[in-house]
Amino acid sequence: MSIKRPTFDERVRGGLYGVAVGDALGATVEFMDQRAIQKKYGQLKDIVGGGWLNLCPGEWTDDTEMMLAVAEGIIADPDDPVPHIGQAFRRWQATNPPDIGNTIRAVFRIWDRDNLTHEQWHIAAERAHRELGGMSAGNGALMRTLPVGIAYRLIPDVYCQAIDIARMTHWDIKAGLTCAVYSLAVRNILNGTADRFMAIVEAIKLVQEITQEAYREELREIAESPINRDRSNLKPTGYTIDSFLCATWSVIEADGFKDAVVRAVNLGGDADTIGAIAGGLAGVYWGYKAIPKRWIKKFSPEQCVMLDQIVEGLVELARRQS
Length: 322
Known about the structure:
Layout: H1 8-26, H2 34-41, H3 62-76, H4 82-93, H5 102-113, H6 121-131, H7 146-151, H8 155-166, H9 173-190, H10 196-210, H11 216-224, H12 240-253, H13 257-265, H14 271-286, H15 293-296, H16 301-321
């Protein structure tokens, strides 16, 4: 009997909800190491809240909030999304969220200090990069990049928008390149690539073909990452390439959506972000119906409405682009 593949709409909904459940599951064990997780939970499989942020079960963090902001900005103006994404970022910041990443916090501070506009996010990011001593290759751009691979259909558009949106806050090109690979992998799956490993490998090849020679060395570390499938090499840090490797390993080795996200968050470390990255990719691959219903039920009706509205907007935009 043939297995019915998820529809385009189901994959998009799976991706958005996948980010949210991966985030909500992983937030419980963020900053814990694997030994501590095993001692307390055995293996974390349910969304129970808590963690260092003391979240309620089903609460998500900056990973999902910023992903929704990116989607909102793209839907508002796919040709020039950065100013709209920036406005959404600032609306989120105004809610006084419990956690904002250090790089993003630095960009917000510089944006205010230097009286910049929503057309000048890249100026703020470059200045933050310098003030942080060149340390802006965190995973805070990768965690929010899923909508790029859904909304844009042409390879150059996916590549350029992924890097452009990443560099609103994370100026280091490695952050942008990991976002480009991830977004193109999402695009490949939505376009029919049936093998998740090949979807990532083909995305890397596309980025290698497009990326200018000056960035070849930065790209090499990314290009080798999903091919090395030895768990002992995984480092669940906030470095964008480490997070990319952890997330892609979790998806490639998994038996299904649940297994992928459980693998990801139980690596510990920056578990909410790695869970969100893995959940987005796994959700696009296996589709919405593969997400455990008990996880989705942890979300409030308001959260689900928010996600569903963004799903509808992205699906409509993607169809106009095709």
